[in-house]
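User: These chains co-purify. Model them together.
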Amino acid sequence: MAEVTTGPSTAHTFDLAVSSVRELNAELHAPSSARYEVLRPKGAHALAAGVRHPVTVEILGHAGYYCAGMNDGATIAVFGNVGTGVAENMMSGLVRVHGDASQSAGATGHGGLLVVEGSASMRCGISMKGIDIVVGGDVGPMSAFMAQAGRLVVCGDAGDGLGDSIYEARLYVRGKVGDLGADCVPKPMREEHRAELAELLAKAGLGGEAGEFRRFGSARALYHFAAHNSASY
Amino acid sequence: MCGIVGLHLRDPALYPQLGALLAAMLCQVVERGPDSAGVAVYGDRRRCPEGHAAVSVLDAPAELRAGLRAELRAERWAGLPGSPEILVTEAGATTILAAPVAVDALVEAVRAAAPEALVVGAGTDLTVYKGTGHPRELAATYDLANARGWQGLAHTRMATESAVTPAGCHPFSVGPDQCLVHNGSFANHATIRRELVAGGARFDSDNDSEVGARFVAARLAAGDDLDKALRALCERFDGFYTLLVTSADGFAVVRDAIACKPAVIAETAAWVAMASEFRALAELPGVDAARIYEPEPEKVYTWQR
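Assistant: Joint model of the two components:
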């Protein structure tokens, strides 16, 4: 681990050609610095997973599975693509992917903001529980499957099966939407929706007018108990 | 789980490095399938010289492998035109035999000489290696790092549907210069196996992936190209699959409609590469400038030599 001065504060640099992922994560779990830079990640798994301190981590290259998983308060940026499950189960903080994300981005996240500047693959936001996800490009099929809470903003297109079996998450899509999933329906854009969408786009640093988006959410026909169906349960 | 890597070279200047690049890719997917590994290389003239056919076999008896070659030639290879010299390469459980004859003639001669041996690959360009154990050690056994060629693929296996044996290793090569590697599991393979058997196909294993390979081989034999054959496979097969399929001049990738088995493709002017995970591509020359993307569900991606 070397120290380099970049900007106002000193960043610890981890070169993963020299250090192990375990060493990196051990340091991030008991940080001695406020800023970290990770070089030559080369698709390694679980980079900066389980960070619970308000540190800033910059990963310069492509990351593998579960990057920034379980993040709780850190600001983590990836200057490249990420594999399956980026920021899965995030509690709080900010994760920004400058490239594309593979499947299940932000899966089961409870809080914080995940920004994917490129596109996200299938099942983006699956079972999201309060996380906000803003995707600059497209999301793949089956995104926001069983989404329970939080907001998913898609500046491009959404694949088939969007919001299947959705609970109370709110979905905003600017581009085309394939077939909607079961119990997912278009909903009116009211003033409060335009306001929260504009705020999310601003926080994500992505352009776009809230008026260009459509909103989708739950028809609430699937998850409420209906007395006339009681014989089926 | 299972790990797949494949490399299709566009720039002939890289041909001498094919094996070294493929070995490095293979070693990055070891954890995805640590029980066994198979490799296919196209155009390795060390093993299959120009104008030769090569047959890759498992469980070759000793007399097939070396000592009694002269006797074999006299008694059992006599049917081959000109009683050619046989080039024999041993690599662990795999033996590769090459001779300047037609592919079918060589396959028939091998089967006649050693009925107990299992043919796991044949062609004018293709050499196939299979074995059980740690993939890194198998790569050394196959001398993969020194292989030359224009295309290759490798598979690390985490067995789910059949036993951990060299015969259960991928790739499944059941047509001339064809290979198929599979991550996933087919659900309706028994039904399709019965149909293929009724149509005359003979199976070497109980493996579900072999059914996929036999299906593709039957379609190619019927005149389909890779794209059409794999679209037919998507129609017919249920289950989970990411497939990498290669032929005498092609390289193709397809995933099922759910696409839960991973795949990433990278392309440059010099090569096309596919792997289960990006980390297998991270050391390829020029990868920083590559176009990197995930193949979409049920879309067939093909490249021709």
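Chain B has a mean pLDDT of 92.
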